[in-house]
Design brief:
Layout (H helix, E strand, L loop, with lengths): L8 H21 L7 E5 L5 H7 L9 E4 L2 H10 L5 E4 L5 H10 L3 E7 L2 H17 L6 E6 L16 H11 L3 E7 L4 H6 L7 H17 L7 E3 L6 H6 L4 E4 L1 H4 L15
Parallel strand pairs: 1-2, 1-8, 2-3, 3-4, 4-5, 5-6, 6-7
Helix pairs in contact: 4-5, 6-8
The protein binds pyridoxal-5'-phosphate.
Protein name: Pyridoxal phosphate homeostasis protein
Family: Belongs to the pyridoxal phosphate-binding protein YggS/PROSC family.
Function: Pyridoxal 5'-phosphate (PLP)-binding protein, which may be involved in intracellular homeostatic regulation of pyridoxal 5'-phosphate (PLP), the active form of vitamin B6.
Amino acid sequence: MADEMQINPQRAKQLAENLASITSRINAANKSSRQIRLIAVSKLKPATDILALHQQPQPIHYHFGENYVQELLEKSELLPRSIRWHFIGGLQSNKCKQLAEKIPNLWCVSSVDTEKKCDQLEKGRKALVESDASVEPLRVMVQVNTSGEESKSGVEPDDALALAKHIVDKCPTLRFTGLMTIGAIARSKATTAETENEDFVALRDIRDKVAEGLSWEKEKLELSMGMSADFEGAITMGSDEVRVGSDIFGTRPAKKDAVVVEKG
Ligand SMILES: *Cc1c(COP(=O)(O)O)cnc(C)c1O
C-alpha cells in the first residue's frame, strides 16, 4: 500500500518543480478570473510518481489522469482515496461498468462517445451508489472528434448534443459537465498562446450549441482542451481544464515496459 512505497526524494523534488512550473505557466496564460484545473496525466508512470505529488498529510496535487482501465484499477487500489482520478483514454464498452463501479474516487470520465458506454457507466455507478451512499455521481465529458481524423475517437461535432441529452435524461448517476477534445497533432505543435487552434475554436462553438440545445448557461459546461504542447493556447481559447503529462512526468515508456510498482 501507499505507506510502504519508497519515494526517491530527488525525483519528488523534480516532479514538484515541474508541477510548479506548469502551474505558473497556466496562471500567466489565464487572462480571466476563472479557475483552470490541471490534470496531471500519469499514464504509464509508476505509482510512486503520483504519490510524490500526493503525499499525506499535505498533498500538493489532487487531479490525476489515466488512459488504461487495468492500470487505473491497480493504481487506485494502491494509492490514497483522496486522489481525484480522471479517465481520459479511449473507452471500451465492456470495461465501462467496472470502471464506474470499482473506483469510488473516480472523479470524471472525459472520453465518452457513445450511448452504450454511457449506459454501462451508469450501470456501474448506480450499483456503487446503492452500496455506498457517500459516493457522488460520476462526472462525464463528451469527447468530440473536432479534427475529423479517423484515428481519433469522439463523437462527430453534430452528434454531441444528442449524446449530452442522453446523459442528462437517461443517466441519473452521471453528471454531464462538459466537452473534451484532443485535436490534430500538427495543429497542436503549431499552437502558441497567440494562435487560434482550429480544434479549440471548434470545441468552443460546439459547447455553445450544446448549451443552447439543453437550455443551459454555457458557463455550466466546461471545456477540456490543451496538453503539454498546446495548453497555453487552449487557455487563451477558453479551456477550463488542461491535461498535462510529459511536461510534468517526462517522456513515457512504451506500454509493454510500463510498471505500476517499481522493484526496489
Ligand atoms: C496522454 C494524454 C494527454 C497528455 O499528453 P502530454 O502530451 O504528455 O501532455 C492528454 N490528454 C489525453 C487524452 C491523453 O491521452
